[in-house]
């Protein structure tokens, strides 16, 4: 009896490992190929299988939607979109085999954070989703259901948009032409709620709702019933962000994405440009710093040069250098993540993540090359020159991050020595330093 209860389901060439989810659309299973004989669980290549039964009522319409989803998945290929592997069907059911993302949904990830999402992680996540949306829009595809439950996390916190069940190919002719009522209520744009024509920027509104949820750990439109949710969306009741500790630049970006007018709402590319130009600090805005310096007194002590002037907010030249270091490090850390993701993708091995970790841990390109030759597969050998170019770039980025860390430590030491020797302004200066 026990062996019968534990028997795994078989779907074509795939066998069940576990059940990942169940909803109105059907079920999702974690599967592997029947002939996969990986020695350990970590060596087994895993996939997500989406089982979609066709209902008796309105079957023709359901088949059309499923076919559309298959067509879209076969067309797109991007690191921030979940990958299509295979599909097959029997008389009453279609099965879609997708890339498996072991980090779960962004919705679940957000709710596991005990102290909220850090600003740099927020920017990185929004940037990844926006890249995926930009690619879809370039392919003339509206997703129409961007939300935290439709964004998956894979190794290294790489985000991937999934579930193209109501996505649609569409041509943008300069004016909104779609009017089908589609989506998830809490993330629906005002134009969809009001059943007005809409275009690609409906996805940007949903991205704004998703961004708010990441920042505040709660829904942007959180009324208890649908009527109130739709009323808040129609009336453009932008959610309160007074408790958000992020800088004003990020708050402005979220508000821009939640702009009721489609015309005024930024495109995915404009969102990416805003993020790339982001310069504000997570601690305080420049306005707050200036007001604090003014309230503390901005006249410098003539014995100590420029310490305490309004121009440097009380921290001298070293603070400017440290600010530049921190900004550069953020960009480099993102670049490092991209390079590591590229390596995993090009290696195409079940142990790809582990190989990249080993490569990153050594200090010379020669040692990295030996690891790749020893642990890599035939694809690695064929692509070794390309892989080594990426490894070299990764090494250069990591060295630069270390150099900036050393520079930051040096200037922190200078600050400490300066503050400890300025006896006449020590109390005031230490207060400023601790609030930065």
What descriptors fit this protein?
436 residues; alpha+beta; Transferase(Phosphotransferase), domain 1; 3 domains; six-stranded antiparallel β-sheet; 16 helices; 10 strands; 49% helix; disordered C terminus
Report on this structure:
Helix 4 runs antiparallel to helix 9 (268-276), helix 6 runs antiparallel to helix 8 and helix 11 packs across helix 12. The chain folds into 3 domains: 7-99, Phosphorylase Kinase, domain 1; 106-276, Transferase(Phosphotransferase), domain 1; 310-435, no CATH class. Helix content is 49%, strand content 12%. The strands form 3 sheets. The chain has a 6-stranded antiparallel beta sheet, covered by helices on one side. A two-stranded antiparallel ribbon has the order 7-10. The longest helix has 38 residues, at 384-421. The chain is globular. It is an alpha+beta fold and 436 residues long.
> What is the CATH top level name of the largest domain?
Mainly Alpha
Which descriptor suits the 3D outline? globular
SSE class: alpha+beta
What's the Cα radius of gyration? Answer: 26 Å
Quaternary structure? single chain
Residue-averaged pLDDT, rounded? 78
Distance from N terminus to C terminus (CA atoms, Å) equals: 65 Å
Largest sheet, if any? 6 strands, antiparallel
């Amino acid at each position: 009896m026990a062996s019968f209860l534990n028997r795994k389901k078989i779907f074509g060439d795939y066998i069940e490992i576990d059940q990942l989810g169940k909803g109105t659309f059907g079920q999702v299973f974690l599967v592997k190929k029947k002939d996969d004989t990986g020695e350990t669980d970590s060596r087994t290549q895993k996939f997500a299988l989406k089982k979609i039964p066709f209902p008796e009522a309105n079957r023709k319409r359901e088949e059309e939607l499923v076919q559309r989803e298959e067509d879209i998945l076969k067309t797109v290929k991007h690191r921030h979109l979940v990958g299509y592997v295979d599909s097959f069907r029997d008389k009453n059911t279609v099965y879609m085999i997708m890339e498996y993302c072991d980090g779960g949904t962004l919705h679940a990830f957000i709710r596991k954070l005990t102290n909220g999402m850090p600003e740099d992680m927020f920017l990185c996540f929004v940037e990844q989703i926006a890249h995926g949306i930009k690619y879809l829009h370039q392919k003339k595809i509206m997703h129409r259901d961007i939300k935290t439950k439709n964004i998956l996390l894979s190794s290294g916190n790489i985000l991937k948009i999934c579930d193209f069940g109501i996505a649609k190919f569409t041509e943008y002719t300069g004016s909104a032409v779609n009017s089908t009522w589609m989506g998830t209520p809490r993330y629906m744009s005002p134009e969809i709620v009001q059943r007005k024509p809409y275009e690609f920027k409906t996805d940007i509104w949903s991205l704004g709702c998703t961004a708010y949820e990441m920042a505040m750990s709660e829904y942007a439109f959180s009324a208890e019933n649908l009527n109130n949710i739709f009323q808040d969306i129609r009336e453009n009741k932008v959610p309160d962000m007074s408790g958000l500790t992020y800088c004003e630049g990020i708050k402005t970006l979220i508000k821009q994405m939640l702009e009721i007018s489609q015309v005024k709402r930024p495109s995915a590319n404009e969102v990416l440009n805003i993020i790339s130009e982001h310069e504000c600090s997570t601690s305080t805005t420049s306005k707050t710093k200036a007001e604090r310096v003014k309230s503390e007194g901005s006249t410098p002590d003539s014995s100590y040069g420029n310490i305490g002037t309004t121009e440097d907010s009380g921290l001298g030249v070293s603070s400017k250098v440290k600010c530049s270091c921190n900004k550069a490090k953020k960009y480099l850390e993102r670049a490092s993540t991209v390079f590591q993701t590229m390596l995993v993708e090009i290696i195409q091995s079940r142990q790809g993540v582990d190989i990249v970790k080993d490569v990153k841990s050594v200090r010379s390109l020669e040692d990295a090359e030996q690891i790749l030759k020893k642990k890599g597969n035939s694809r690695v050998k064929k692509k070794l020159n390309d892989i080594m170019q990426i490894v070299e770039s990764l090494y250069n980025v990591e060295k630069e991050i270390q150099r900036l860390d050393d520079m930051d430590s040096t200037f922190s030491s200078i600050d400490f020595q300066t503050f400890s020797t300025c006896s006449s302004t020590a109390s005031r200066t230490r207060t400023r330093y601790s609030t930065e």
